[in-house]
Amino acid sequence: MSRQNYTFTSESVSEGHPDKVCDRISDAVLDAFLSEEPEARVACETFATTDRVVIGGEVGLSDQDKLKDYMGKIDEIARACIKDIGYEQDKFHWKTCEITNLLHEQSAHIAQGVDASGNKDEGAGDQGIMFGFATNETPELMPAPIHYAHAILRRLAEVRKDGTEPALGPDAKSQLSVIYRDGKPVGVSSLVLSTQHLVEDLSSEDIRNIVAPYIAEVLPDGWLTEETEWHVNPTGKFVIGGPDGDAGLTGRKIIVDTYGGAAPHGGGAFSGKDPTKVDRSAAYAARYLAKNVVAAGLADKCTIQLSYAIGVSKPLSIYCDTVGGNGVDNAAIEAAVAKVMDLTPRGIREHLSLNRPVYQRTAAYGHFGRAPDADGGFSWERTDLVDALKSAL
Question: Which of 64, 172, 318, 382 is the one with CA 20 to 30 A from 48?
Fold first, then answer.
């Protein structure tokens, strides 16, 4: 039997964290190309440091003239992201930082393995393993530590950007240690929050007084007690933040982006990759399937693994591991998910409508546990397979 009483910790980082600045820019580039052509191919990486942003990778459009036009828009796209995040520091300012665009056309050798041709279906953009996870410990069917770590930073970003708390800066990190009793989250044993501040002489106590009401607002009632340990800006002053304080790179926050360490991870990052790349699309599909398994009451927790080979359309394997529920055999669930969803790269893209410019919004505060948007964003968070899964068993 799995442990029922324990403490588990997850962390989140804000949209102003250096790595998240890079994820945002990479996904904004992706959205721009998908806006022009739903079948655009993008693998965009971003690096950021003091006064500089470097963007590289490969992109592809069917119209080469349009490809050249979009190459000229990269500078504008990057500056818009930095401005929206809120960076106007002396050594990292959206107006003045140097943007270097090193994007180039997609490799023809990769394209020939991935693209559909003749009677060959579209293949996976790379080999790899992808995991999806869901648990009934929160209404969003997410692990509580990562879900609430995200919620804290998202709320602080809201009050920073609407002017309610102008002393807060864009760069921040949170960490929650959540107490579990009888397998359910019941409280917070310790909370860590480091946030950049724009007023230089604020103490750690001053920052705690600013952020504490918002933290209490997003956590469930009773989770913060007199025994909860608080560590707010534990190193003291935090004025220099973002890429000026530490270099950033696309794809370095893969655990923050997914389940906070509560589930396995295949190792692939998401941001800047178009949905032919199964690192992204199959991870979304695996979450979608796992969430629907739990929503259907087939398990309290569900892990789904998918595996692919580059250029091959069908998954090489489907694996399911469940805890709790009504005793449905894992092998039966594996067979059922294959019936209710086409798990080829094209099948995933079409089922979840992934060829849309909906990715920039995923770049911070997690790719999972978010409400589906009317325009198709976070489509992998729907629970519309419940009846189909029950029928397939």
Answer: 64
